[in-house]
């Protein structure tokens, strides 16, 4: 049977594995030039390839980073490094949160961690509003359809257009996942804060009763 202690062990183990893998990915990114690692940028497509009498759908294209403009490469490296660093910090905080949650669920630090996570999610929501602009800038800089035409024979016909990044929780192309995460974190933080306040009131009441006796 999956007890709370076992669930905490499993969750802590998974977070630790993810933390190690993310740290290794960041190390690989920083040492990529020394290790001669080839990175690529994946862009979404909505295109059709006609070649040798067959027709194939194309949903994405991988562009080697070495073939891209300097500005795109620099932006990709910096943004990826910042993303991995932030993910490492979040995984470490989540690991500490899960360990503390079972021993003392109403500890004030739990509500603070959830509030901090909500603020991060709201910040990510603000950045996601810029996603359409970033997507258009990437397309203008990389020309993915032209890159595909260079990779296939001359008789191949590619028709379609570049597509915007989409997510299951999006409205008008705007990702709403961070907003949903922030709302859940705020609700749980408020619940834990209220529970901690009630527990403190009970402690004070018991202390007053003991003094009265």
Summarize the structure.
This protein has 213 residues and is an alpha+beta fold. It has seven helices and five strands.
Topology:
Blueprint: H1 4-30, H2 32-35, E1 40-51, E2 54-64, H3 70-103, H4 108-128, H5 131-142, H6 144-151, E3 157-162, E4 170-171, E5 174-175, H7 177-212
Antiparallel strand pairs: 1-2, 1-3, 4-5
Helix pairs in contact: 1-3, 3-4, 4-7
Description:
The protein has 213 residues and is α+β, with helices and mostly antiparallel strands. It has seven helices and five strands. Strand 4 (170-171) and strand 5 (174-175) form a beta hairpin. It is elongated and about 95 Å long.
What's the pLDDT, averaged over the residues? 78
Pairing-aware structural class of the strands and helices?
alpha+beta
Helix content: 55-70%
Topology as a string of helices (H) and strands (E): HHEEHHHHEEEH
Oligomer: single chain
Strand order of the largest sheet: 2-1-3
Give a quick account of the main beta sheet: strands, pairing sense, barrel closure: 3 strands, antiparallel
**Apparent shape:** elongated
Poorly predicted ranges (pLDDT <50, ≥5 residues)? 165-169
DSSP E strands, number: 5
Q: Work out the radius of gyration.
A: 25 Å
């Amino acid at each position: 049977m999956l007890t709370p202690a076992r669930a905490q062990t499993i969750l802590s183990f998974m977070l630790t594995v993810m933390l190690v893998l993310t740290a290794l990915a960041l190390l690989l990114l920083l040492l990529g030039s020394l290790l001669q690692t080839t990175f690529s940028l994946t862009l979404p497509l909505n295109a059709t390839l006609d070649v040798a009498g067959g027709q194939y759908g194309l949903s994405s294209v991988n562009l080697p980073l070495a073939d891209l403009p300097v500005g795109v490469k620099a932006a990709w490296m910096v943004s990826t490094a910042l993303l991995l660093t932030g993910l490492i910090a979040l995984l470490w905080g989540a690991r500490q949160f899960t360990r503390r949650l079972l021993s003392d669920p109403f500890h004030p630090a739990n509500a603070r961690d959830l509030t901090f996570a909500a603020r991060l999610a709201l910040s990510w929501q603000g950045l996601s509003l810029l996603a359409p602009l970033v997507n258009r800038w990437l397309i203008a800089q990389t020309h993915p359809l032209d890159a595909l035409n260079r990779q296939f024979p001359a008789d191949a016909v590619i028709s379609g257009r570049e597509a915007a990044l989409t997510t299951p929780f999006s409205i008008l192309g705007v990702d709403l996942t961070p907003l949903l995460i922030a709302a859940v974190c705020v609700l749980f933080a408020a619940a834990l804060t209220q529970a901690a306040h009630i527990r403190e009131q009970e402690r004070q009441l018991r202390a007053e009763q003991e003094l009265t006796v």
